[in-house]
Amino acid sequence: MEDIMLIRSSFLRRIISQIINKMLKKQFPGVELELKDAQANWSEKEQKMKVHLELDAEVTKAQLVDILKKNHVI
Q: In which domain of life is the source organism classified (predicted)?
């Protein structure tokens, strides 16, 4: 059995966007995100939650390079 929650209201998306932005500002100053869509699936059998987020983000080239370096991509 699986429970699914879709977050479509702009009010809840704005709140979740603010939470994500606060978390990311500590690691990546200047990066702003806007949450477009969010979906959470809970599987009782696996006892796991899967989260799908659709985000818009705007970063400079310098910020992107910094993010990639911090995550050992380049």
A: Bacteria
Question: Can you read off the two tokens belonging to residue 73?
Answer: 């991509």
Q: Where are the domains of the chain?
A: 10-71
Pairing, β 48-58 against β 32-43: antiparallel
The closest alpha carbon to 31, from 62, 53, 55, 59, belongs to 59
Residue 58 and residue 24: Cα distance in Å, rounded? Answer: 13
Query: Cα separations (Å) of 24 from 2, 13, 29, 46, 48?
Result: 30, 16, 7, 29, 24
What would the pLDDT profile of 14-60 be if each residue is shown by its tens digit? 888 788 778 777 777 778 778 787 788 888 888 988 888 888 888 88
